[in-house]
Design goal:
alpha+beta; 4-stranded antiparallel β-sheet; disordered N terminus; 2 domains; 8-stranded antiparallel β-sheet; single chain; Umud Fragment, subunit A
């Protein structure tokens, strides 16, 4: 054989110690992934949850395709008049969701595989609306100028679309204990409590059905910002 020729060498098998180290590294990686998945599931279940908004019922405050974060830790506790909340409307309203839908955009294509891996389903009966009446409040619409009155005080709502009346549907509601009266900001286009006045319960939503208060809009980045409570409503005298 000439000196220019080479011969292939058969790789030596891994020693038992090296094989054990590789197995431990893999097991450690699997454990870290499992812990991360559990932590994400716990955070989503008890602390905070993101929601995708498919409709324009809360425009201009919240727009279609916005994504918001909801404080689930406190649930209905601490929710006040003027807050924007997400709630489970299965019992009170039923019908299609206005707060959670899977979409096929860039963010949806990234989040969907993670959702499926975690066994998390998007809700079908979750709604996003603003708290207008708390227990004991007397909410009436409308005055001659097209405004609500809450506990006898006429309210100008700065979050409504320009030129919109408080409602084209008249109502006179006294909110009972344990319930809230919820409306969308885009009153001409929002199927909210007014659409259920003739239903059992009169469109009122149990406080226990509130998933949490919307604290942050995080997508799109151009609209990133906190969701402040409307001081126009929160400063009113409480009913009851």
């Amino acid at each position: 054989m000439s000196t220019d020729e080479t011969t292939a060498e058969t790789p030596a098998p891994l020693a038992p110690r090296e094989q054990g180290a590789g197995s431990r590294r893999f097991a450690g990686w699997v454990l870290r992934v499992a812990v991360a998945v559990v932590l994400v599931a716990l955070v989503r279940s008890f602390v905070v949850q993101s929601f995708y908004v498919p409709t324009g019922s809360m425009e201009p405050t919240v727009q279609p395709a916005d994504r918001v974060l909801v404080d689930k830790w406190h649930g209905a506790s601490g929710v006040q008049r003027g807050d924007i909340v997400v709630f489970d409307g299965t019992t009170a309203w039923g019908g299609p969701s206005t707060a959670t839908h899977e979409d096929t955009g860039l963010v949806g294509s990234v989040l969907t595989p993670a959702r499926k891996a975690l066994g998390i389903d998007f809700g079908e009966k979750d709604y996003l609306k603003r708290v207008i009446g708390m227990p004991g409040d007397h909410v009436v619409c409308c005055t001659s100028t097209g405004h609500l009155t809450i506990n006898g005080t006429e309210v100008t709502e700065p979050y409504l679309p320009a030129g919109a009346r408080a409602s084209d549907v008249t109502f006179d509601v006294t909110v009972p204990p344990g319930k809230v009266w919820l409306l969308g900001d885009n009153r001409p286009e929002s199927a909210d409590a007014r659409a259920h006045l003739g239903d059992p319960g009169g469109g009122l939503v149990p406080q226990d059905d509130i998933i949490g208060r919307v604290d942050l809009r995080f997508w799109p980045l151009s609209r990133w910002g906190t969701m402040e409570r409307s001081t126009t409503l929160s400063h009113l005298t409480a009913g009851g």
